[in-house]
Amino acid sequence: CRWQGIEVKNVDSSSYNSLYEWALEVKNEFALRSRLLKAKGISAATKEAIELLAQECGKKFYMIENLSEFVRNVYTLSGDEALHPLVELFFRQGKGLGIYFFAGEGVSRGNDVASRSAYSAFMQWHTGIHFGGKLEQQKLFEFKMAYSKLTEALDFNVGCYLEKKKYKQVFMPTKEVIEE
């Protein structure tokens, strides 16, 4: 899917082969963008780099349906090459090259992945949106507000996030709303 210079792709982590193909694609994209920056003498992760890469290459968004399952598969599915070092690199440095990763994650994530480097690299940014309220159950954000507000349930399509340490809400329209 491509929209206004942004390419969005879903990541299939159901098999080693699908993960390997995805990792090769992202690795090639990293190499292309790194070569472009090097040729222009620009450091990655700077405002100038992000603007140049957005103009020259567009932005890439990769959507991961279930982060815990994805990370678990990256470390446990076997094949010719270990994929976790690449995935760790992608999550740590992708943002600086205009490559972004989004993932769904349940409140009760698998404890077996929380200590994995790929999971930590993804979570290091402490950015995202928590849907459905009950903010005390999640560990990504630290919302400073009354406990009654922290435990409040919201509709499934109402998200909470922090912007400059301030609590904000966003509404995600459902398919039914979009089609009306």
Model description:
The protein is of the alpha/beta class and 180 residues long. 42% of the residues lie in helices and 18% in strands. The protein contains 8 helices and 7 strands; from the N terminus they run ββααβααβααβαββα. A 4-stranded mixed beta sheet has the order 1-2-3-4, covered by helices on one side. Strand 1 (2-3) and strand 2 form a beta hairpin. It is globular, with a radius of gyration of 18 Å.
Short description:
Helices cover 42% and strands 18% of the residues. It has 180 residues and is an alpha/beta fold.
Query: Helical stretch count?
Result: 8
Low-confidence stretches: none
Strand content: 15-25%
Strand neighbour order, sheet with most strands: 1-2-3-4
Query: What is the rounded distance between the termini?
Result: 22 Å
Radius of gyration, in Å, reads 18 Å
User: What best-fitting shape do the alpha-carbon axes yield?
Assistant: globular
| Strand and helix order | EEHHEHHEHHEHEEH
User: What is the count of β-strands?
Assistant: 7
Q: Could you report the average pLDDT, rounded to the nearest whole number? A: 87
The biggest sheet amounts to: 4 strands, mixed
Q: Helicity level, as a percent range? A: 40-55%
Structural class call reads alpha/beta
